[in-house]
Amino acid sequence: MLLLFALVVGVFGSSRLERNVANCQLDVMAASTPGRTALAEAKQLSACLSERNGWLERWRSRGGTAAIDALPHAPCRYLGVWVALRGASAYAVTLKGDGEFKAEPLAISNRQERYAGSWGVHEGQMVWLPQGHRGAAWPPDINRIRNPRAESFSLEEQDGSISHFFLAKSLYSADCAN
Predict the structure, then answer these.
(1) pLDDT confidence of residue 10
(2) DSSP per-residue string spanning 126-166
(3) Cα–Cα distance, 90 to 107 (Å, whole number)
(4) What is the predicted pLDDT for the residue at 58?
(5) At what angle do helices 62-70 and 38-52 cross, to 10 degrees?
(6) CA–CA distance from 178 to each of 52, 65, 98, 166 (Å)?
(7) Cα separations (Å) of 94 from 3, 18, 22, 99?
(8) Which residues of the chain fall below pLDDT 70?
(9) What value, to the nearest 5°, has the Cα angle with vertex 40 and ends 57 and 16?
(10) pTM for this model (two decimals)
(11) C-alpha distances out from residue 154 to 19, 29, 30, 118, 130, Å
(12) DSSP reduced 3-state for 123
């Protein structure tokens, strides 16, 4: 009986959350202005969800909203141009002190997409908010940071795969967080 209750609550909460996310994304996109950061849009979307969601939906989305609320937080040790490798993909990823990033492919691969948006670190996890990717940047892409070293670190992706980052060039910024 308890399992059936959990299943019903999960399905109900999930469908309401999905509907609220879709409606909030429409609101955020309608209010979007040129030059607005992915973080600003994600914060607006998070506020919209907090307003529309009931306790069940807030509980289901707690990880994403907590990470958004904690940003901007761009630790100085991650600022720079990094070579990111995952499978056959290779990107040059620039992480800036103002919490913005850009990722450009280094070689011809199956995924030649360019990405840009906002980034930050929250509770040992890298939080990515791609700009203009699937509407407002939701849900955030949150990856556990593994093996952080001075010139390298790895991220555990949502699908369990690992992305490896190697420092190509350090950047300085007065905006970063220690």
Answers:
(1) 46
(2) EEEEETTSSSS--S-EEEEEEEEETTEEEEE-TTS-EEEEE
(3) 6
(4) 64
(5) 130
(6) 35, 23, 13, 20
(7) 46, 32, 30, 10
(8) 1-14, 57-64, 108-111, 132-137
(9) 15
(10) 0.79
(11) 34, 32, 36, 19, 19
(12) coil
**What pLDDT is attached to residue 137?**
63
Say what the pLDDT of residue 22 is. 82
Structure tokens at 27: 């609101």
For the record, the structure tokens of 36 come out as: 């607005």
Tokens coding 83: 């070579």
Question: In what helix (H) or strand (E) does residue 118 lie, and over which residues does it extend?
Answer: strand 115-122
Distance of CA 129 to the CA centre of its chain: 4
Q: Is 8 helix (H, G, I), strand (E, B) or coil?
A: helix
How does 84-112 read in b/e, with b if 16+ C-beta sit within 10 Å? bbbeebebebbbbbebbbbbeeeeeeeee
